[in-house]
Design a protein that fits this description.
By secondary structure, the protein is an alpha+beta fold. The chain has one domain. It contains seven helices and eleven strands. The strands form two sheets. Strands 1, 3, 4, 6, 7, 8, 9, 10 and 11 form a nine-stranded mixed β-sheet that branches. It has a two-stranded antiparallel sheet with strand order 2-5. α1 crosses α5 and α1 runs parallel beside α7. It starts with a helix and ends in an 8-residue tail after the last helix.
Length: 232
């Protein structure tokens, strides 16, 4: 009997270990997609103005969000957000998030798009610490400017807590996703960190080390904007 119990316990442990490893690989693929989107949106002439990035408190990326509709529709996708780090780290470990809901007008069919959000002030971070919040209703959001001249829109930056960008079929644009709901992806964070994370300790206090799967994503920002500039 004891041998059967031992074999059963070994089988359960092995299954849990395999499942945990597969879950980490899944989140690693998500973070790699975030890295690719961010890297491409920070290059080229029509890109995020670097001085806006330097003033951003956090950056969120949602790769390949699906648009679904027959009539009025919405979007759904999963991604990650990272905020300015403390001490020697210029950017901290990411929080896994999802976006969904919202009505985006009459449309037919489905389409995937990538989204990047710049969180421009501490009030925007406060929303990220919630389990969920609605863009436009809770956090003020505006379409982010592109290119070298885009940074001239200082009034836009002062009004909005979040500036948003999109890429569809290789084309970048500023897009305001009012009505969409941003949530903390608790399962994704559990998969990545192996435990339930505290969003405040993660985003504001830098209490979690950057997981290996997230180093590529974070390094893009460390290279592009190693430290915040005053006036953000």
């Amino acid at each position: 009997m004891n041998r059967r119990v031992a074999l059963w316990a070994l089988a359960v442990t092995s299954a849990w270990t395999v499942g945990s490893a597969q879950a980490q690989v899944k989140e690693g693929r998500r973070l790699e997609a975030c890295r690719e989107v961010l890297e491409e949106l920070l290059s080229g002439e029509e890109s995020i103005p670097r001085d806006l990035l330097d003033k951003a408190e956090c950056v969120a990326v949602i790769p390949s969000a699906k648009k679904f509709a027959l009539g009025f529709g919405g979007r759904y996708g999963k991604g990650a957000v990272t905020c300015r780090g403390r001490g020697e780290r210029s950017w901290g470990a990411p929080l896994m998030i999802s976006i969904g809901g919202g009505s985006f007008g009459l449309q037919i069919g489905g389409q995937a798009a990538d989204y990047v959000f710049l969180v421009m002030n501490p009030k925007g971070i406060d929303y990220l610490l919630r389990s969920q919040f609605t863009l436009g209703a809770d956090a003020a959001i505006a379409a982010g400017p592109l290119g070298r001249t885009g940074s001239a829109a200082t009034d836009l930056r002062l009004r909005a807590e979040i500036l948003s960008y999109s890429r569809t079929r290789g084309l970048f644009a500023g897009l305001s996703l009012e009505g969409a709901v941003v949530k903390q992806d608790k399962d994704g964070n559990q998969n990545l960190y192996g435990e339930r994370v505290d969003s405040k300790r993660l985003l504001q206090e830098g209490a979690y080390p950057i997981p290996p799967q997230a180093r590529g994503f974070v390094s893009v920002l460390e290279n592009a904007s190693p430290r915040a500039k005053s006036g953000g």
